[in-house]
Write a structure and sequence with these properties.
Oligomer: single chain
Shape: globular
CATH class of the largest domain: Alpha Beta
CATH topology of the largest domain: Rossmann fold
Number of domains: 2
Order of helices and strands: EEHHHHEHEHEHEHEEH
Largest sheet: 6 strands, parallel
Number of strands: 8
Length: 207
């Protein structure tokens, strides 16, 4: 049994505009000038960066700042986030080939069902795994191990767009596809690179 595990933001869902607008609306409330979208997207996808400090000049954000960010992000996510072209068809191809299909996202677990249903792709996943108190975020490999365990697969591949995703796959000893249609750029250290959905499907089909 083969399982194909997908990251969400930057791989399945284009949430770049939502993240960009959220960060800069918070900055505006703090009387700070806006940041470039490219800088924001790169920062959130690199492990080890202190995002509150880089985005807001605050080493430890207050509870009210966190809650304000989450409220704004939910609003902009609903307004702006959409599925990348061809990805819904890619998920369907995986199902038609009788592969198990799992989502593994650093977003909070309890937010994922609503997002996926809004984009009409929830039913294409056999399992949906997000971050929680029990499940740490990537690059920890816990989500990937859980995906394999839940589906009882004997072959697994992870499809993502960031260094966090690549490191999670490496930590799980799992082949990794770096996609270049979303937030990601080609990686010299990834197992595979996919410039488009067609290339991703060929890799998934043949690994």
């Amino acid at each position: 049994m083969k399982v194909v595990i997908f990251d969400m933001d930057g791989t399945v869902i284009d949430s770049g505009e939502a993240i960009y607008k959220t960060v800069n609306e918070v900055r505006d409330e703090l009387n700070l000038p806006p940041l470039e979208k490219e800088f924001i997207i790169k920062a959130i996808n690199e492990p080890g960066r202190n995002l509150p400090l880089e985005f807001y000049g605050i080493d430890t954000p207050s509870r009210s700042l966190k809650e304000g960010f989450e409220e704004k992000f939910k609003k902009f996510y609903d307004e702006c986030a959409t599925t990348y072209d061809g990805v819904k068809e890619l998920l369907q191809k995986c199902r038609d080939a009788h592969y198990k299909v799992v989502l593994a996202s650093n977003a909070p677990h309890d937010t994922l069902e609503k997002i996926l249903k809004k984009n009409e792709i929830y039913e294409l996943f056999d399992e949906v795994i997000g971050a929680s108190k029990e499940i740490p975020q990537k690059p920890d490999p816990a989500m990937l191990h859980l995906a394999v365990s839940k589906t009882k697969a004997n072959k697994a591949i992870f499809v993502g767009d960031s260094l966090k995703d690549e490191l999670a796959a490496k930590n799980a000893n799992m082949p990794y596809v770096q996609v270049c249609w979303g937030f990601g750029e080609e990686s010299k250290t990834a197992t595979y690179n996919a410039k488009n959905v067609s290339e991703a499907w060929e890799i998934i089909l043949n690994f």
